[in-house]
Each structure stands twice: as structure tokens, then as C-alpha cells.
């Protein structure tokens, strides 16, 4: 199949990841999100990736590779930036209560516009730093995409963690020295290899929790 348009590539990649076609509302919202991102990016520089086909792969499909590892409940997307992976996940999983956390005001303004324009009642943009954010109740899952290091991510999220909290770290090429550098209070539950349709680059998901 010739991937001539972002719509075609999204459909093909979605079938590969979900094993089904996108529902009409899901597809409409994913494409509307990319359109809004493109328009805001001209002024606010939210992403360095500007090619629409590449945005489908590196933003939407990359975010959706973790779907089967995300449990229902409260999901905190730490350092969400332009809303990745939280916005795509919230579109496909309306059972999630997604907090989009970032310290940059321009990104939170963009995400508030996403919430209004796409009608996403299950997302809540919050301007704060992960290490100082203390919601009540705490999240069930904290996810981050391309955080500086696993140890830094765990340290910043520690104040949010309970015995039932999971940390999901989305990584590219996985450096084993990062795993070895995890503090002793972190339990490494799994390292999953992810496959993004259309991308040959390595992708991994590191799943962690509090050591009992």
C-alpha cells in the first residue's frame, strides 16, 4: 500500500497496533489533534517534527504502542510536552483519567485548547514539575516518554508512589547502565520491546514499581 497521506498511514498503523480499524470518533480526534499541533507549532515551537507522515509515526503510533500496558484508572503523563503519549492514549482509552503534566506554560495552554476543541473530558492539563506535584488521590500509573534517565524519572516520581503505583518509562535504545543505576527502592518489573509501524528505530518500555 502506498502511504501517500497521513490518514492512510494512520489507518494502516492503527490496524497493526490495535488489530481493528479506528472508530470514526477516534480517527477524527487523532487527526484533529495533529492539525491543531501543526497550527500551534508555527508560533509556539511545540515539536521539531513537522512532516505530517512522520508525525503520525513518531507521535501518534509511537504513543499508542503502550496501550496494552496501561491499566484503567488515573494516568499521569509526566513531562507531557505537546501531550505525548497522554493525548493519543486518552482518545483511544476513555476509561483513563489523564493528567498532562508539564512545567511550560505554552504547552499547557496548547493542551487546554486540545481539551476544548477535541472534547476530551478525560484529560486535565496541569502546569507543575513532577518532583513537586502532589495530587490527591495519587495516580495509579505515571508514564513518561524520553525522560532524561530511568533513575531521574524514578527519583522525581517517588513522592507520588504508593505500593500500587506503576512507573512506565518509554525509551528508545535502552542503555543497560541505566537499569543498573536504578536506586535500590525501585523494583524492575519488566522491559518490553515495542514496535512502531513504519519505524526501524528501537523502542522499549521499562515498567517499575516500589520494592516491597
From TrEMBL:
Catalytic activity: guanosine(527) in 16S rRNA + S-adenosyl-L-methionine = N(7)-methylguanosine(527) in 16S rRNA + S-adenosyl-L-homocysteine
Subcellular location as annotated: Cytoplasm
Gene3D superfamilies for this protein: Vaccinia Virus protein VP39 (3.40.50.150)
Record keywords, A-Z: Cytoplasm, Methyltransferase, rRNA processing, S-adenosyl-L-methionine, Transferase
GO molecular function term, any single one: rRNA (guanine-N7-)-methyltransferase activity
Enzyme Commission code: 2.1.1.170
Record bears the keyword Cytoplasm: yes
Residues the entry annotates as binding S-adenosyl-L-methionine: 79, 84, 130-131, 145
GO CC term (a single one): cytosol
Domain of life: Bacteria
Keyword rRNA processing applies: yes
Family the entry assigns: Belongs to the methyltransferase superfamily. RNA methyltransferase RsmG family.
Described function: Specifically methylates the N7 position of guanine in position 527 of 16S rRNA.
HAMAP family: 16SrRNA_methyltr_G
Entries under NCBIfam families matching the protein: rsmG_gidB
Name of the protein this chain belongs to: Ribosomal RNA small subunit methyltransferase G
Organism listed in the record: Elongatibacter sediminis
Lineage of source species: Bacteria, Pseudomonadati, Pseudomonadota, Gammaproteobacteria, Chromatiales
Amino acid at each position: 500500500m502506498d502511504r501517500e497521506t497521513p490518514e492512510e498511514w494512520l489507518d494502516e498503523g492503527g490496524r497493526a497496533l490495535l488489530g481493528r480499524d479506528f472508530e470514526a470518533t477516534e480517527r477524527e480526534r487523532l487527526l484533529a489533534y495533529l492539525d491543531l499541533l501543526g497550527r500551534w507549532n508555527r508560533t509556539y515551537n511545540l515539536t521539531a517534527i513537522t512532516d505530517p507522515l512522520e508525525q503520525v509515526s513518531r507521535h501518534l503510533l509511537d504513543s499508542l504502542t503502550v496501550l496494552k500496558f496501561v491499566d484503567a484508572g488515573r494516568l499521569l503523563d509526566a513531562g507531557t510536552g505537546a501531550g505525548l503519549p497522554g493525548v493519543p492514549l486518552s482518545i483511544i482509552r476513555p476509561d483513563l483519567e489523564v493528567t498532562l503534566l508539564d512545567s511550560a506554560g505554552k504547552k499547557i495552554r496548547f493542551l487546554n485548547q486540545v481539551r476544548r476543541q477535541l472534547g476530551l473530558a478525560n484529560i486535565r492539563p496541569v502546569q507543575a514539575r513532577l518532583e513537586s506535584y502532589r495530587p490527591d488521590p495519587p495516580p495509579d500509573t505515571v508514564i513518561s516518554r524520553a525522560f532524561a534517565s530511568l533513575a531521574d524519572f524514578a527519583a522525581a516520581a517517588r513522592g507520588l508512589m504508593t505500593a500500587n503505583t506503576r512507573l512506565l518509562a518509554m525509551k528508545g535504545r535502552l542503555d543497560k547502565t541505566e537499569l543498573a543505576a536504578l536506586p535500590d527502592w525501585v523494583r524492575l518489573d519488566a522491559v518490553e520491546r515495542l514496535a512502531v509501524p513504519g519505524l526501524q528505530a528501537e523502542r522499549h518500555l521499562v515498567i517499575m514499581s516500589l520494592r516491597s
